[in-house]
Every structure is written in structure tokens, then in C-alpha cells.
Amino acid sequence: MLELCRRYSTPVIVNSDAHCAADAGNQRFAFELLQETDFPPELVANYSRKLLQDYLERAEL
Description:
This protein is mainly alpha-helical. The protein has one domain (2-16, 26-58). It has helices spanning 2-7, 28-36, 49-58.
């Protein structure tokens, strides 16, 4: 899926997908996967506050 998102310049949003309260907000594994696959940070809509603001403005949300 990440390869298709990269190919078509489709942004993704990263979250923890936590199944217990202790893991809520822990996005370490997701960001490790993005690094391992050389996924471009500019396509991670919530990589930074600035990228998220830009994405929301473009999406008119």
C-alpha cells in the first residue's frame, strides 16, 4: 500500500492503532516502517504540524 501511495503521491496519516491505553500515541513502529520503506516524509500528512496544516488547507477541511 505504501508503494502505491508513493507512486501516486497520495498522502498517508500515521497513528498508533493502539489496542491498550499504554500504547496510545506510540507511533514508533509506524515511523520505523516508513523509514525502512524509504517512504517520503512529505507524503506523511501528520509528519509535522506544518505538513498537517498544509494538508488540511489543501483538502479544505
